[in-house]
Amino acid sequence: MTRIVLITFVLLAMLAGGSVGALAWADGKAGEQLPAGALVGGVDVGGLTREQALEHAERRVGSLIARPAHIELGDRRYTLTPDEAGVRIDLRSAIERAYDAGREGSFVSRGWRKLTGGRLSQDVPVQAVVDGLAVRRFVERIAKQQARAPVDAELEMTLTSVTVKPERAGRRLAARDALVARLTRRLTSSTDERTLRGKTIEVPAKVTEEKLLEAQPIAVTVSRDGKRARVFRRGELIETYTVAVGTTKYPTPTGRYVVQTMQVNPAWNVPRSEWAGDLAGQTIPGGDPRNPLIARWIGFNGSVGFHGTNSAGSLGTAASHGCVRMAPSDVISLYKQVKVGTPVLVA
After folding, report:
1. pTM
2. 69-120 pLDDT per residue, tens
3. What is the distance between the alpha carbons of residues 169 and 222, in angstroms, rounded to a whole number?
4. Per-residue pLDDT tens for 110-160?
5. What is the CA radius of gyration of the chain?
6. Which of the residues 53, 117, 236, 309 could staple to 48 if both were Cys, CB 3.0 to 4.6 A apart?
7. Beta strand pairing status for 343-346 and 255-258?
8. CB neighbours of 26 closer than 8 A, spacing ≥ 6?
9. Domain 216-346 has CATH 2.60.40.10
10. What is the Cα–Cα distance from 333 to 326, expressed in whole angstroms?
């Protein structure tokens, strides 16, 4: 209270003594400069002209904001420059705001502050903006480079072995939106560290080795040369059957298939082929002596499949019109083990 009274007394004395001109002169002198204590983006620009302040702020603030930003992921480092991010800094407007703040009040208060060495306690923030789309595209490029699709477990078959190629997890960039926001904040700050740590997260495969074997524990292979059908359960050989395969003229087709159809005592839809003779185009019911499909049918390639046969002497030879003949008891055994979707390899 005593200080306020004293200042008021001195001011009144100056006015009474004709010191108004001194205050006006001090105010005019101050009008060319930013007020003492004025800060722009934390940088002291007091006592400088606006152009001097702009140059000083560009050196101190602009250079700090105009720094590249980095994202580190493992042993990779990705850099985004201010130009690429479209960083723009409006220092001139901040300096004008600081100047305007110093011109508030009357010439008396401004002149008195100048004469007494008073300081303006104000820090005008610097507005910096970035191109949000450019920052997002930068992060998306990183995400694309880091992405790895998961690989499902896969059944690998040869005539004598069935194994599983294990699944492999994939990965993706974690928290993309958050990374864009963090990067944007850093690019507009004159103080924050410009190196960010990114993270990836694992993307599990949909089909694991265990799931694959649970879904399809049985696999069947057919050797045309060896006249053998083999049955594997979870990769272990459990049965071997002697079979008949197609002749040279009507070979059993090779390739990787799956069981498509299954029937008990199947009817025979006789193909319209020369070898079918008078039966061509007819449907012979199951159990009919003219029907060569005995006991069971396990189709894996349209009209080609496993079936029982009464021609036991043909087993172990190339004697069929493309199908895989089996002893009736063997095809019944096979029928109990497979299902629609069971993989079949013929080679």
Report:
1. 0.66
2. 999 999 999 999 999 999 888 788 888 887 887 665 454 455 545 545 455 6
3. 33
4. 554 554 545 567 788 777 789 999 999 999 999 999 999 999 999 999 999
5. 44
6. 53
7. antiparallel
8. 110, 111, 112, 114, 115
9. no
10. 10
